[in-house]
Specification:
The complex is a heterodimer of chains A (275) and B (621).
Chain A (H helix, E strand, L loop, with lengths): L9 H30 L8 H34 L15 H29 L8 E8 L2 E6 L34 E3 L2 E4 L4 E7 L4 E5 L4 E5 L5 E5 L5 E7 L12 E6 L1 H11 L2
Parallel strand pairs in A: 1-5, 4-10
Antiparallel strand pairs in A: 1-2, 2-3, 5-8, 6-7, 6-9, 9-10
Helix pairs in contact in A: 1-2, 2-3
Chain B lengths: L1 H12 L2 H6 L4 H31 L6 H6 L12 H37 L7 H9 L1 H10 L22 E2 L4 E2 L7 H30 L12 H32 L11 E2 L2 E2 L7 H35 L6 H14 L15 H13 L1 H15 L8 H23 L2 H7 L3 H31 L5 H27 L19 H31 L87
Antiparallel strand pairs in B: 1-2, 3-4
Helix pairs in contact in B: 3-5, 3-6, 3-18, 5-8, 5-9, 5-10, 5-16, 6-8, 7-8, 8-9, 9-10, 9-11, 10-13, 10-14, 10-16, 11-13, 13-14, 14-16, 14-17, 16-17, 17-18
The chains are: A alpha+beta (275), B mainly alpha (621).
């Protein structure tokens, strides 16, 4: 029987692969991350819970980054060192209870830690909204966002999809319901800085997703359901709303704006809208 | 001897059609699956190039592409938004269902299961033939959707209703998207046909593994590649019927006026939709109940393939065989309990999100065990850097990179930011798509000699590896940062948004890398096709491997084994056994004829079956 092809080139190939892993994956990966922090990174956080979310992201980044680098260095080292040479034999070594238990339990411990931290943040994000929250409704449609404020009575009037008319009554307000009389329907979202806001999310037609990158907020708008989330904007400014769930050919143009300003400015703006 | 006569006789009397086209031989069926899948991979790959053309240079004019895809481009050569979504949808559907599932499970499963357990064929050869022959019709129906009114579906490979559900029977076009017309129906029908094919296949695999193992081949002596195929078949059998039900329900919603997934009171295109009382989340639950096991259907077979390759080309037993089997089973079990992590932002109760976070991060533990076992297999190995081995090592790297980003996405508070951004695209292209592709390539380089009796060119294989490995990282690694910056997936163009302005350079880089990656695959195509006809003849066991398939001829004859079925005496990983004359001891070598593996027979899992030398030929008895 013919011998396996002579092993002379194996060490060379191994060293090439090891170098590629270290240079491209380890150095390249870490280097690109550093570069990305300057050019391609999360927007500066502008909501209260976003700070917790970012901390969780960074913690996960550090933990996974360490594992990423270590495992690749390990692979590179083994590939560098253990290329076939001559008629040398590999070690007949195929079980080690202690080693296997270690690399079962250590990842388990790390994951339990990350799960616990994640559960705490998730519970806070979806905990009950503070009593002084303002309330606003968001409705997605192909391809834009519509907002509704409940007005002085604080109650959203009934809507009836059959009444929807793009020009006169885009929300489909039912005039028979007295609560709908003072409802304000707008194309822009204005929020007060540092005031918690409950957002009721609905959809007129298909799935959309209400995504404000700077707030670390994303919630699908599901037809037939009203999903409520809450958050607190912490920085004045104008932020973009994007649609993050495929909703048709105009998915990529479904852009909205949210203005975060002082409570007075929001009141003034609301008063202007009612005319 | 009777069997050999019979086998030879049978081979002799079969005509060309029965031997190579409507064949019931598992090896031919496996090769048919593989060839068809490679063709579909080319189709899916071209679609990927179209996606990257658009995302690299949004709205640019492509004079040539206009002639190649007349319906998809405007007169001045820009790609139409609905065609873009059709391309995205079809790229995903084709790569997941029509390439990776069919190649890894249909191709390698069919070819390897009977050979590695010492059987002559599958338990149900006729059903096996049916399984393959449902696949080309499914392809025809799927690709036909490009040519009907409204074009191919626009709703993504996940086909979320109501976008995918609303249909105007009068005009034959979609209500909410052009592609939700007849194209979407064809997509659903195609998937239904393919699911039946998968079910025939998986029933066959499970029965074959349970019933047709040769003498001495206990479950604890099965190679890991066979364990992976067996577990994958169970996953498919349990999860695909759920998608089948969902697909039929969606077809009913579209054509028969039911409302499983469409709620009351929708207004689409200015019209009140008549459906009432359905729920879009129901589809998501049903879809992902399949969809998550499905990603393990794609990754378990490569895991098995890579375990084989690392042992054979590293000349070393796989490390932690029992832990490997246990983690395959653990991953398979847990894969049914994690579907909700696709739905953290869907409107599902947040409490349920917490439960799915726990199961999702739990599945990382067996995955970590497998990874460390592969790395430990390399320790003090004597590695032969064949193309198969290079792809196997590449697989481990890709799986680590993609697996780690899964830890971000498994945590719901973090996932809220990353869901439906390019971070997710990067994640699954590493951990599932590229890793599975590397398993596929590694497996092809490794088993090509057995499949076709010829060797592939090593130098071209290595060149293919270097370019593909660099190409994959250059294409998909930067996508993490597109996702960090918040770029949503499935956007025709990110230019509408101020916060995505700074990403155009990075997007161009990704596109150029993707084109390079695509071109590098031509090297593989050339090598593959050339080696089929011109490759040097392969001997029976060119890699000096232990498993049973390498003890048969290359390619194995009809019936695989000649007169006598092989008898198994040991586990498959006796490489570099101290004191043995060769550095490998095939499974068929009796214990008395060679040094017993260190402890391999003392473990109940690895050596449970009583060891008897073959006395009589069971089949002729």
């Amino acid at each position: 029987m013919a011998e396996i092809p002579a092993a002379t080139g194996e060490r060379r190939t191994g060293r090439l692969l090891a170098s590629l892993i270290v240079v491209m994956i380890v150095f390249g990966g870490v280097g690109m991350t550093l570069l990305a922090r300057r050019y391609w990174w999360l927007l500066p956080v502008a909501s209260a819970h976003g700070v917790d979310v970012d901390r969780l992201i960074y913690t996960t980044f550090v933990v996974t980054g360490i594992v990423f680098v270590l495992v690749h260095i390990l692979i590179a080292a083994f590939v560098w060192r253990f290329g076939a040479r001559g008629t040398e034999r590999a070690a007949y070594w195929h079980d080690d209870r202690t080693l296997e238990l270690t690399y079962t339990l250590v990842p388990a411990a790390v994951l339990v830690t990350l799960i616990s931290m994640g559960a705490v943040v998730w519970a806070r994000v979806h905990g009950p909204a503070p009593a002084d929250s303002m309330v606003v409704e968001v409705r997605g449609e192909q391809f834009g966002w519509l907002f509704r404020y409940p007005g002085p009575d604080g109650i959203f009037g009934r809507v009836d999809p059959a009444r929807i008319s793009p020009k006169d009554n885009p929300m489909g307000l039912d005039p028979a319901d007295p609560a709908s009389a003072d409802d304000l329907v707008t194309r822009e979202l204005h929020l007060a800085v540092n005031r918690p806001v409950r957002v009721r999310i609905r959809s007129k037609d298909v799935l959309h997703s209400f995504f404000i990158p700077a707030f670390r907020v994303k919630q699908d708008a599901v037809p037939g359901m009203t999903v409520e989330i809450w958050f607190t904007p912490t920085r004045e400014g104008t932020y973009e709303i994007a649609c993050a769930e495929l909703c048709g050919i105009g998915h990529y143009i479904m852009r909205g704006k949210v203005m975060v300003e002082s409570a007075d400015a929001v009141q003034t703006w609301l008063a202007q809208q009612s005319h | 001897m009777a069997v050999m006569h019979e086998a030879a006789h049978e081979e002799h009397k079969l005509g060309f059609l029965q031997r190579y086209v409507f064949s019931q031989d598992h090896k031919i069926i496996g090769i048919q699956y593989m060839m068809t899948s490679l063709f579909m991979a080319a189709v899916g790959g071209v679609l990927a190039m179209l996606i990257r053309m658009e995302l690299g240079w949004p709205g640019a004019r492509w004079g040539l592409a206009k002639w190649l895809f007349p319906g998809g481009f405007t007169g001045d050569g820009t790609l139409k938004p609905d065609f873009y979504l059709a391309v995205v949808t079809m790229h995903g559907s084709i790569m997941i269902f029509f390439v990776l599932t069919t190649a890894l499970s249909g191709g390698f499963g069919n070819f390897l299961i009977p050979l590695t357990i010492g059987a002559r064929d599958m338990a149900f050869p006729f059903m096996n033939m049916l399984s393959y022959w449902l696949y080309p019709p499914a392809i025809v129906v799927l690709l036909a959707s490009f040519f009907v009114a409204g074009g191919a579906p626009n709703a993504g490979w996940t086909a979320y209703p109501p976008l995918s559900a609303l249909y105007n029977p009068a005009t034959g076009t979609g209500l909410a998207a052009p592609g939700s017309g007849l194209g979407q129906s064809l997509w659903l029908v195609s998937l239904a046909i393919l699911i039946v094919s998968f079910l025939f296949g998986s029933l066959n695999y499970i029965t074959t593994v349970l019933q047709l193992r040769t003498r001495g081949m206990s479950m604890g002596r099965m190679p890991l590649v066979t364990w992976a195929q067996f577990t994958t078949a169970i996953l498919m059998l349990l999860s695909f019927p759920v998608l089948f039900a969902a697909v039929v329900m969606l077809l009913f919603d579209r054509h028969l006026g039911t409302s499983f997934f469409v709620p009351s009171g929708l207004v689409v295109g200015g019209q009140l939709v008549t459906h009432q009382g359905g729920n879009p989340l129901l589809w998501q639950h049903l879809f992902w109940f399949l969809g998550h096991p499905e990603v393990y259907v794609l990754i378990l077979p490569p895991m098995g393939i890579v375990s084989e390759i690392l042992a054979v080309h590293g000349r070393k037993p796989i490390f932690g065989y029992k832990a490997m089997v246990a983690s395959i089973c653990a991953i398979a079990f847990l894969s049914f309990l994690v579907w909700g992590h696709h739905m953290f932002t869907s409107g599902m109760n947040p409490l349920v999100g917490t439960a799915f976070m726990v199961t999702t991060l739990a599945i990382a533990i067996p995955s970590a065990v497998k990874t460390f076992n592969w790395v430990a297999t390399l320790w003090r190995a004597r590695i032969h850097f064949t193309p198969a081995m290079l792809f196997a090592i590449g697989f481990v790297s890709l799986f680590v990179t993609g697996g780690l980003t899964g830890i971000f996405l498994g945590s719901p508070a973090v996932d809220v930011y990353f869901q439906d951004t390019f971070f997710v695209v990067a994640h699954f292209h590493f951990v599932m798509a590229s890793a599975a592709l590397f398993g596929l390539f590694g497996g092809l380089y490794h088993w090509f000699p057995k499949m076709f009796g010829r060797m592939m060119d090593e130098r071209l294989g290595k060149l293919h590896f270097w370019l593909t490995f660099v190409g994959i990282y250059a294409t998909f690694f930067p996508m993490h940062f597109l996702g960090m910056a918040g770029e949503p997936r499935r956007y025709y163009s990110p230019q509408m948004y101020d916060f995505l302005r700074g990403l155009s350079g990075l997007n161009m880089f990704v596109s150029l890398a993707a084109f390079g990656l695509g071109l590098a695959q031509l090297i593989f195509a050339y090598n593959f096709i050339r080696s089929l006809f011109r490759g040097p003849k392969a001997e029976g066991n060119p890699w000096h491997a232990n498993t049973l398939e390498w003890q048969a001829d290359s390619p194995p004859p009809h019936g695989n084994w000649g007169a006598t079925l092989p008898t198994v005496h040991r586990w498959p990983y006796d490489y570099s056994v101290p004191g043995a004359t060769e550095d490998y001891i095939p499974q068929t070598v009796p214990v008395t004829a060679a040094v017993v593996a260190g402890g391999a027979l003392h473990h109940p899992v690895q050596g449970g079956a009583p060891d008897e030398p073959p006395t009589t030929d069971l089949n002729s008895a």
